[in-house]
Amino acid sequence: MSDAETLFERIIAGEIPSDKVYEDATTYAFRDIAPQARVHVLVVPKKRYRNLAELASGDPQLLADVASTARKVAEIEGIAESGYRVVFNTDGDAGQTVFHVHAHVLGGEQLGHFGR
Ligand code: AMP
């Protein structure tokens, strides 16, 4: 198993420092180390699934928990009313680099269009 595969588990365990925004029994949220917007927070389920599809089929309740935590992060960060974007990158063309599913919560400013 490469470092990339275990990075978020080590962050959740406190072995690697992170700027925590929110935590509950099933999810952990912390600031992205290379923010792509004024607010850029990652929401990670504590139990590891490789990507959104595997999480959705393996534990739908945990996916609902991730969505709920994304909403809580938006409220904590004061962007729930101004609007925000939630992104799950999956594999190569999307540029996924950490294979422990995570939601990017982005906002705090007008976001550009995305895609190509
Ligand atoms: P993805 O490319 O969707 O797999 O997203 C992985 C994200 O993890 C990237 O946006 C990275 O900037 C972020 N990242 C990598 N290492 C850390 C770290 N130690 N703390 C916080 N964010 C990290």
From TrEMBL:
Gene3D superfamilies: HIT-like
CDD domains the UniProt entry points to: PKCI_related
Alphabetical list of PROSITE patterns matching this protein: HIT_2
Highest rank taxon of the organism: Bacteria
Domain HIT, first and last residues per copy: 7-116
Motif (Histidine triad motif): 100-104
UniProt keyword annotations, A-Z: Kinase, Transferase
GO terms, molecular function: kinase activity
Active site feature: 102
PANTHER family tied to this protein: HISTIDINE TRIAD HIT PROTEIN
The protein, known as: Protein kinase C inhibitor
Gene that produces this protein: hit
